[in-house]
Design a protein that fits this description.
It contains 13 helices and 13 strands. The chain is of the alpha/beta class and 341 residues long. The model has no long low-confidence stretch (mean pLDDT 94).
């Protein structure tokens, strides 16, 4: 199969630190290539992959990016997987799915894909499909012996509930390491910075080996989001590392942890109690096995290949004539080449 993967222009593929969407694109691209498919990746400058060819955007302007994609789309592509939104909105004459890695899809696109059934129901109004994120299990360090610190991993914004992770750490008397990008300085100065010291540390953004080391050695990961999390990749990363991850029942969290209900919490008091009674939580091996069975890159790729074939074979995608894609393509073809003189 010839497949085009459309990433965003925000972070290269794969991302060095934070970048959930780009990491999904990376894992999916690499696994598809591994299985013998031809993959064409459109992504931000600096991206690297084993795709048949990687096209790096030449502009930060979405309109110019769309033109770039139209101009460089290889012949004979069977399906386009748009993680960005600009291609599906243009209605190309090639079967196209549009995946939302957050909440809803505001654009008028034909085939919508969400990262959890919760988001499909609440924001997608049950119109579309749900395919879970997946990670490459071998990328994550697995350990059964843990150190005595708690870990918060994610963006430092109110919605991620960093202040609640601090509250749990104080209730239990445990050390807490906070790792992630500082996206809200006002929130950081008011709710996080005053609590930093020997027992509560902020180590900045982490990626690669440092991130895997923190996840594998933590006694527990605290997933204290207070908003409707679309999925929660940190949940899966923690379990892949053999580390219990305690999360509030918000958004898709309960869905991701459906087979591990003991990891769900209602309050910081309940979360603190589970930290103290860690021996009653699932074992490292059980957590790793659960993550591999449900959320590996292999499982994710299986699901997308089934969806690709369904879209193509059942003609779910309707080819339209007067579309933005066709209008832009005609304009590009009629424009002067600049070679004359």
């Amino acid at each position: 199969m010839r497949i085009a993967q459309i990433s965003t222009n925000t972070i290269p593929v794969p991302p060095k630190n934070y970048g959930g969407t780009q990491r999904d694109v990376h894992y999916l691209t690499e696994e598809l290539v591994k299985r013998g498919h031809e993959v064409f990746l459109f992504a931000k400058k600096g991206s690297t992959s084993n795709a048949t060819r990687t096209f790096e955007y030449e502009s930060d302007d979405p309109k110019k990016q769309l033109d770039f994609i139209i101009k460089n789309m290889p012949e004979g592509v069977d399906i386009i997987h748009d993680h960005y939104g600009i291609v599906a909105k243009a209605n190309p004459p090639i079967p196209t799915i549009c995946q939302s890695h957050s909440k809803g899809i505001k654009s008028n696109v034909q085939i919508r894909v969400y990262v959890s059934k919760f988001i499909l129901r609440k924001y997608g109004k049950r119109k579309g499909y749900a395919v879970y994120n997946g990670i490459r299990m071998d990328d994550y360090t697995f350990k059964t012996a843990k150190r005595k610190y708690l870990l918060f991993l994610g963006r430092l914004i109110k919605e991620k509930g960093v202040h609640l992770a601090i509250k749990v750490a104080k209730k239990t008397g445990r050390r807490l390491i906070i790792a992630g990008t500082l996206n809200d300085k006002k929130y950081y100065n008011a709710k996080i910075k005053p609590h930093l010291g020997k027992r509560i540390r902020y180590v900045g953004p982490v990626g690669g080996d440092r991130k895997h080391e923190l996840l594998a050695n933590a006694s527990c990961v605290l997933f204290t989001s207070t908003w409707d999390e679309p999925f929660g990749l940190v949940l899966v990363e923690s379990m892949a590392s053999g580390t219990p991850v305690l999360g509030f029942n918000k958004g898709g969290v309960a869905e991701v942890l459906r087979g591990m209900p003991r990891l769900l919490c209602k309050t910081t008091t309940g979360m603190a109690a589970k930290v103290r009674n860690r021996k009653r939580l699932p074992s490292a091996r059980a957590l790793r096995r659960y993550a591999r069975t449900r959320y590996s890159d292999v499982v994710m790729t299986d699901s997308f290949l089934k969806l690709y074939k369904r879209v193509i074979n059942k003609n779910l995608y309707k080819i339209k004539k007067n579309t933005l894609w066709n209008r832009r393509k005609a304009k590009l073809q009629s424009a002067p080449t600049g070679d004359g003189g």
